[in-house]
Design brief:
Elements (H helix, E strand, L loop, with lengths): L13 H15 L5 H8 L7 H15 L6 H11 L5 H7 L2 H15 L15 H21 L1
Helix pairs in contact: 1-3, 2-4, 4-6
């Protein structure tokens, strides 16, 4: 492919960054997964510095005070490196807010009791066991019909 044949690179618009933030905020209100988050975080529109900074600002505001799963904090830190660049956050946001977010990220970087830092399931543990009980009851009813 020649350089002349390539499609021109179109810089992301503020509207595209806003769309990504709205999508992320919707995810926070529904069952979501690691892949859903990464799909947003890896969008081409966020590769530009200005677009990335706008998105990070909105992301930070969206997750303040949220109880995110372990993998959610890990995904945010893996993509945006907030734990490594804390001074930038402190220059932008109130210290207490930054302390809270960095505390949550730091907590997820500690190994779990089993020693792993695996991604958590998007389904809470209690919901998983309810699903197991429902499945067992359905299987029992099916077996009784035979």
């Amino acid at each position: 492919m020649n350089v002349e044949d390539a499609a021109p690179v179109v810089p992301p618009t503020p509207d595209r960054v806003a769309e990504l933030l709205v999508s992320f905020q919707r995810l926070l209100k529904t069952p979501y997964s690691y892949d859903d988050w990464m799909h947003i975080f890896e969008d081409d529109a966020l590769w530009g510095l200005e677009a990335r900074e706008r998105f990070e600002y909105g992301l930070f505001r969206a997750i303040e005070g949220q109880a995110l799963p372990r993998w959610g904090w890990q995904a945010i830190d893996a993509r945006f490196r907030w734990s490594e660049d804390a001074q930038r956050l402190y220059r932008t946001f109130p210290d207490a807010d930054v302390d809270s977010v960095l505390g949550a990220i730091t907590e997820t970087l500690r190994p779990t009791p089993s020693g792993s830092t695996k991604k958590e399931s998007a389904i809470p543990g209690w919901a998983f066991w309810i699903l197991v009980l429902v499945a067992v009851n359905v299987l029992r009813q099916c077996a009784a019909m035979l």
